[in-house]
Amino acid sequence: MVISQPAILTYFASLLIIFFSCVVFFRNTTLWQSGRWRRHLLWSVLANTVLFGSIAVYFYSQYGFITDDLFYFTECLNYHGNIFTCKTADELMCAIAHPLRAYFHLDLPACHVLFGTFGFLGSLIFVQVLMARMDFRQVSLRRRNIIAFWTLVCFPNFVAWGRFFGKDSTMFFLTAVMVYNAYRVVSGRKFKPVNIILIASTFAVMFRIRPHLFAVMMTGFSLALLVKAYTARMPDVGVRGMYQVVMPLVFLAVSLFIGAGVIRSVSRQNEVSVQAVQSSFVTASKMGAYGGSSTGLAEKMSDDPTVIFKPTQVALNVIFLLFAPFPWQIRGGADIMALASNLIFFFLLYLFRRTITGKDLFQKYLLINIALLVVILSFMSGNVGLILREKTILLPFVFLFIFYNPKNKLAPAPRSSAKAG
């Protein structure tokens, strides 16, 4: 793989994007006001460059390509629609890639760099969510803050599939934008209409890219709003009735409408029925259940496709999703990276087990999404490589749930702290 001139120019342009984004995201936080933490931001950019570049070179030398999303790059010039007229995920990605190739003349390495930049910005947005409950000036929380920061910006899953050109990095960035704005709405803090607009916009794009993940996140956000409606103190009877009666009815109607659209999109059938739902799950499970890293699910489904709906198989799929690859399943560098990710993940879960409460409304929102994502992603656990990619969307919710501490109260940052560090 040759590092091209467009890739180099895109990289330096990306550094400017990252710098101005950091100023916008963190200018009023202790993360930016401390020289020590500004250096952490700098080192995180360099670490992502080295790690992302190393993984890209390895994949290219091992397989001849970096990802299996080459279709979007090769076919985008033949696509003449736009993001508003596209009907499938492939068409949407072609619509995004078309101007990059036609007008900016980016080659494939440059596209990887550009999408890697947005993936890194997604990690920083997740960090911004934690900034509401993390004071980076507190010495007693320094170790926790350092671990939380570096986990979100350099976790192996994120540096791999969250940084490459394709649907995974796009979904990672959209999820970060959605979670931040959902936090503003769900947590009870003051939010603006723009937060609702951004949530709706990200959901609209998610629906085209990953309809099943869109359905899960939409459900999680809606359930969190219902919990907020029934637990919030509302002395006015009219307002309370609107939130606790009208809102659930609207939620039910919208859920039925959106659910029907998701079923049609995934199953590619006009009918909405139990058979269509089962067919969509069977099709999704079979798509990635083959290859050298297969977990054996494809062989079971060849005899009985409905085996994935049996409780014992669902439990087994959840175990594979959470723990695979096992040591005896290691076949290459990607599997080693996945195993390392699992070891780091369970170590962090053990290390911060005593600080996890789940009592805060935002933590309940995260927990709802974690539970729903584990169930839906377990149906796509037929291949170890696919498990690694699918968990890229699950892990940010888990890490935010681990590190978000509602008991932390931030003191106002003194002006002199801008010179600290």
Please provide a written account of the structure:
By secondary structure, the protein is mainly alpha-helical. It has one domain. The chain contains 18 helices and no strands. Helix 12 packs across helix 13 (274-287) and helix 15 (311-323) crosses helix 17 (361-378). The protein is globular and about 60 Å long. The two termini are 40 Å apart. Residues 410-421 have low confidence and may be disordered.
| Secondary-structure class | mainly alpha
Low-confidence stretches: 410-421
Overall shape: it is: globular
Beta-strand content? under 5%
Total number of domains: 1
Tally of individual helices: 18
How many whole angstroms does the radius of gyration measure? Answer: 22 Å
Order of helices and strands: HHHHHHHHHHHHHHHHHH
Helix content: over 70%
Q: Report how far apart the termini are.
A: 40 Å
How would you sum up the major sheet?
none
Number of strands: 0
Overall pLDDT level = 77
